[in-house]
Design a protein that fits this description.
The chain has 271 residues and is α/β, with parallel strands linked by helices. Helices cover 21% and strands 28% of the residues. It contains 6 helices and 16 strands. It has helices spanning 15-27, 49-55, 63-75, 116-119, 148-156, 173-184; strands spanning 2-7, 33-35, 78-87, 90-99, 102-108, 129-131, 136-139, 161-165, 187-191, 196-197, 205-206, 212-214, 220-223, 230-235, 245-247, 250-251. The strands form 4 sheets. It has a 6-stranded mixed sheet. Strand 10 (196-197) and strand 11 form a beta hairpin. The N and C termini lie far apart (48 Å).
């Protein structure tokens, strides 16, 4: 299976241009699966909820989803991409999963970062795994990486590959996703963006790039640079993610002790 990460630098609010650029890159890609950044079509730094709502689209009926479904159909590939999703009066930071047959599903970001809390509703989908036949895809978005429970939930639900659209401004994620892959025995694709945004007198946000693909043993298979654009693709044997052994006597999941982990799901905070 060939899996890839798309990295770009969208111009804020120029949805048609940003989508067209992505489609151009995808037309030249030879991959079964490509993961794209968070909010790849709009840019990130909204100045008001009204602005975010105006740039959001219904899923899968908006122009962005339609364009992505068309390129997925013509290239016979699967795509995971981040966008602002409008659902009635609600607004979500979402990721769509599409393939040659059309729309497969959505994930809505669970852990909102910084000013996202002003614009988006907390995700209500839970952590979802999508079976595309050749592989099982788990999806999480950007700041979800900070919470190991997210990747573990996806792995326990059968994910072979964690698809991770991102707009990273904090350092640490790239190393953390190596750990998430290692501890869960899954492949991961972190598709980040580049460039910076400074809108409405806000503090500039500088995005870290370095999109990466990690294997189920925590080895870095591919990494882009901080400022580059395009798509990186690697070949993998996805079945390796279904072998959770560590040694002949140890297994990532069979050796777990859920009876001892009760504190993880409690809502109370440490004193």
């Amino acid at each position: 299976m060939k899996i890839g990460a798309y990295q770009g630098n969208p111009e804020f609010g120029l949805v048609e241009k940003n989508v067209r650029q992505a489609v151009t890159e995808l037309e030249g890609a030879d991959a079964d699966l490509v993961v794209m950044p968070e909010l790849f079509n709009t840019g990130y730094q909204f100045v008001s909820k009204e602005e975010a709502f105006g740039l959001a689209e219904e899923m899968p009926y908006g122009d962005t989803c339609r364009s992505m479904m068309e390129i997925a159909r013509s290239k016979k590939m699967h795509l995971v991409f981040g966008m602002a999703e409008r659902d009635g009066a609600r607004l979500f930071n979402s990721a769509a999963v599409v393939g040659p047959e059309g729309f497969i599903g959505r994930y809505r970001k669970s852990h909102l970062f910084y000013e996202e809390k002003y614009f988006f509703d907390p995700g209500d989908t839970g952590f979802m795994v999508f079976d595309i036949g050749i592989a099982r895809l788990g999806v999480m978005i950007c700041f979800d990486w900070w919470f190991p429970e997210a990747a573990r939930s996806l792995a326990l639900s059968g994910a072979d590959i964690i698809c991770h659209p991102a707009n990273l401004v904090l350092y640490g994620c790239h190393k953390a996703m190596i750990t998430r892959s290692l501890e869960n025995g899954v492949f991961s694709i972190t598709a980040n963006r580049t460039g910076s945004e400074a809108r409405g007198g806000k503090e500039p946000l500088v995005f870290t790039g370095e999109s990466q693909i990690v294997d189920n043993r925590g080895s870095l298979l591919a990494s882009m640079n901080r400022d580059g654009a395009g798509i990186v693709v690697v070949d993998i044997d996805v079945k390796r993610a279904r072998d959770k052994s560590i040694t002949t006597l140890n297994d990532r999941f069979k050796d777990r002790r859920p009876d001892l982990y009760g504190e993880i799901t409690k809502s109370n905070l440490p004193a």
